[in-house]
Amino acid sequence: VPNSPLALNYRGVVYLDKRAYGLAATDFKSAIKLNDTYAKAWANLGECHVKTKTYKEAVACLDKAIELDSKLGAAYLNRSLAHQQLGNAKQAQADRVRAAELGAVVEKKK
């Protein structure tokens, strides 16, 4: 088992890409346990929650990621998706605008 937050985060991203959300979440949580100021791990855990439709948890993680690093465009984008699902249209729109300002865009489905 890696004991580096960076290694755990990278492995979590691989799991996230493979849709192995449980394994991804475990790695992101382990990375955060080793370094609770690791914004990208918080953002990735938030994305994992969006993918598993646990939107309140997603918002909490993404809030923390953005608090730690306000330049994480993907965190705003994922938080906008979570807010949309929770019925928070104004917050979703504000996050979409901020994500776009930071260069994060929603990929169009082909």
Structural features:
110 residues, 6 helices, mainly alpha
Task: Describe what you observe in this structure.
By secondary structure, the protein is mainly α. It is built from 6 helices and no strands. The longest helix has 14 residues, at 21-34. The chain is globular. It starts with a helix and ends in a 9-residue tail after the last helix. The model has no long low-confidence stretch (mean pLDDT 94).
Number of distinct helices: 6
The proportion of strand residues reads under 5%
Rounded mean pLDDT score: 94
- Global shape: globular
Major β-sheet annotation: none
Secondary structure: elements and pairs:
Blueprint: H1 5-17, H2 21-34, H3 39-51, H4 55-68, H5 73-85, H6 89-101
Helix pairs in contact: 1-2, 1-3, 2-3, 3-4, 3-5, 4-5, 5-6
Question: What does this entry show, briefly?
Answer:
The chain has 110 residues and is mainly alpha-helical. It is built from 6 helices and no strands.
